[in-house]
């Protein structure tokens, strides 16, 4: 497996395809026999998500293969499990700073082997993020992602969380497992159906009309 990971704010459009060419190492995409193209569907930066979807669609169209959208929050939880080698049952709260005083968050259960979603992605103020009733009371709770930069604003049950990794972000290689599962279970999409998951299209800002201003 060939992997490239780099955090490059506001340079996705300029860097994405040159880095793909580096990964292909002089070969064309058709030579690899890809079965599908996986892309990060979000939540996350609106511009970044649109670039990811467009790139996945372009590659999939040219190769005549389907696409698989993978949650950024799930990918981030899997990145934590790989990098920290966590092998014990736990609850993972995966978060991303959504700006404007809100966070994206989803909760997962890790049983020591597999990862299962307990609550789907939401966007909310930090104080509104709580553990789902289905979370095991005895399992340690781990927090990951940039949303935990606001940990002091979370509900009390998350302020006393066992351990947090606020600087960790999702890495593309951790999309592989859920993408393979989707492929094996025929849960792919045609390229035209690829969509970003904004979770909520309008978060906290107001339109010009709502501000009483003219365009």
Topology:
Layout lengths: L11 H13 L12 E6 L3 H18 L3 E5 H13 L5 E10 L2 E9 L4 E10 L16 E4 L11 H4 L3 E3 L10 H9 L31
Parallel strand pairs: 1-2, 3-6, 6-7
Antiparallel strand pairs: 3-4, 4-5
Can you summarize this structure?
The protein is α/β, with parallel strands linked by helices. It has helices at about 10-25, 45-65, 70-85, 155-160, 175-185, and strands spanning about 35-40, 65-70, 90-100, 100-110, 115-125, 140-145, 165. The chain folds into two domains: about 10-70 and about 170-195, 2-Layer Sandwich (Nucleotidyltransferase, domain 5), CATH 3.30.420.40; about 70-165, ATPase, nucleotide binding domain (Nucleotidyltransferase, domain 5, 2-Layer Sandwich).
Question: Characteristics of this structure?
Answer:
215 residues, alpha/beta, Nucleotidyltransferase, domain 5, 2 domains, five-stranded mixed sheet, two-stranded parallel sheet, 5 helices, 27% helix, 22% strand
Question: What do we call the CATH topology of the largest domain?
Answer: Nucleotidyltransferase, domain 5
Structural class: alpha/beta
Strand order of the largest sheet: 5-4-3-6-7
Indicate the multimeric state.
single chain
User: What is the beta-strand fraction?
Assistant: 15-25%
- Per DSSP, the total helix count is 5
The gross shape turns out to be globular
Radius of gyration: 18 Å
Low-confidence stretches: 201-211
The helicity comes to 25-40%
Mean pLDDT: 89
How many discrete domains?
2
- Please give the number of β-strands: 7
The biggest sheet amounts to:
5 strands, mixed
Identify the CATH homologous superfamily of the largest domain: ATPase, nucleotide binding domain
User: SSE order in H/E notation?
Assistant: HEHEHEEEEHEH
If classified by CATH, what would the architecture of the largest domain be?
2-Layer Sandwich
For the terminal residues, how far apart are their CA atoms?
A: 50 Å
**The level-1 CATH class of the largest domain:** Alpha Beta
